[in-house]
Amino acid sequence: MATRRTRKWLNVKERKSKFAVRQTTRSEILHVEEEGYIAPDADDNEEEEERVVDLTQADIKSSVDLFSAQKRFDLELPLYGSYHIDYTRNGRHLLLGGRKGHIAAFDWQTKKLHCEMNVMEQVNDVKWLHIETMYAVAQRQWTYIYDNQGIEVHCLKVLDRSLHLEFLPYHFLLAATNEAGYLSYIDVSIGKKVASYNTRIANGNGKCGTSIMCQNPSNALIGLGHAGGVLTFWSPNQREPLVKMLAHKSTIRSVTIDQTGTYMATSGVDAKLKIWDLRNYQCLKEYRTSSNGASTLAFSQKKLLAASYRDVVEIYKDLYDEESTSNELPRYLLHRCPNGSSASSVAFCPYEDVLGVGHDRGFISLLVPGAGEPNFDALEANPYQTKKQRKQAEVKQLLDKIQPDMITLDNSVLGEVDRKAFVRKQEEKRNNFNFVKPKELIVQADKKKGKIGKRLARKTQIRDAKLKEYLQQQKLKRKKTKN
């Protein structure tokens, strides 16, 4: 090592790293909670499997404890549908956005309402930001940011005519796509536009546009589905898509990616549901669905998949089991929306066995055993955090903010040394090593200011007088030499 101080710093860092690994191993012993599924217990597995699929929400609600039974409820809102929904990262708060302008934010477990209003114009999408006190709404003309009291905080006119919204929590970026086919990124921590690109992929009527939008939680790439069955993944650092693939032979209806960024599910108008491995972008499974395919898809934390077909919501389990040779969809649960309402949005609640469904006539909260992660990291997302803890977590998130230029396809390179940049800087230093003498600065005196100006003026006068005397002497010498 170069110095003793460097060696000491490295030793301290190594001790802290070993201590963190040891504490993590010890904390895993405390994670005694395990997910539980509805499983058959009889000899005839096929008959029991059919019986499990036919279980209704009333049957599940009557079999669970009182606290879990309260998580099953319906909201009848027939005047302002269809509804888009979004849960916070800790799974405690719910945001509803009706197509006809109705917006509501509340704590869905305690049923405490934060705010409810009608913006009196079309709402295309809603999305929570980094905390539960701010959310974004894509309205007909502009995108607005409101607080939890329903007060308008910002009007983002750079996001005009937005159709879909996605928020990247580790980068504080709000991504949006509009009718003209532009993908834009806004840094909500400073309120500035980071990038805006035209996807330049035509839809069915010959214009540029996107049919759906999702994000990859592992590397923060934005996935866009287009009318021709093309699926693209974008980063704010490049104008061209990092990945461009043909997922379906017709228009893509919905795309979702699991929390680890390993598996992706897509559905198209060709009535096919495909499961992809994002490590090599290969199709693992392909299933035949009902006509026109699933309109919305959503992965849970434990890799259950929810899909909606008009008024029917189906939950699948073990879709990507490579050992299974069956081409039939492994249905886990099934539910029909009331009064034949079409489901417009589905989302699993983090750390809860709950599936939220927004439809034409309101909202439904369904019980799905085994959907949520039973153990949570309080430093990452705490469902029981207080107001003080929320403020501290917000400050920590801002300090740990990741810059947009670090969004790449392969996120493993972020912890490595950039050798190319290091070599380039060394070459620039060697090329610019030649010393250039700076120009001589002549300070002119300011006669109007103080003693220093007068002193400099006197020095200038003396120097000019001596120079004049020297020039006269040289002139006399030249005359004498001529004579």
TrEMBL record:
According to the record, where are the WD repeats? 245-286
Q: Name the UniProt key words of this record, in alphabetical order.
A: Nucleus, Repeat, rRNA processing, WD repeat
Q: Where is the BING4 C-terminal domain?
A: 331-411
Q: A cellular component term (GO) from this record?
A: 90S preribosome
Which Pfam families does the record associate with it?
A: BING4CT (PF08149), WD40 (PF00400)
Compartment(s) of residence:
Nucleus, Nucleolus
Domain of life, per lineage: Eukaryota
**InterPro entries per UniProt:** BING4_C_dom, WD40/YVTN_repeat-like_dom_sf, WD40_repeat_CS, WD40_repeat_dom_sf, WD40_rpt, WDR46/Utp7
Q: One biological-process term from Gene Ontology?
A: maturation of SSU-rRNA from tricistronic rRNA transcript (SSU-rRNA, 5.8S rRNA, LSU-rRNA)
Query: Which Gene3D superfamilies does this chain map to?
Result: YVTN repeat-like/Quinoprotein amine dehydrogenase
Q: Does the keyword Repeat apply?
A: yes
Q: What is its main location?
A: nucleus
Protein's UniProt name:
BING4 C-terminal domain-containing protein
Q: Which organism is it from?
A: Adineta steineri
Q: Taxonomically, what lineage is the organism?
A: Eukaryota, Metazoa, Spiralia, Gnathifera, Rotifera
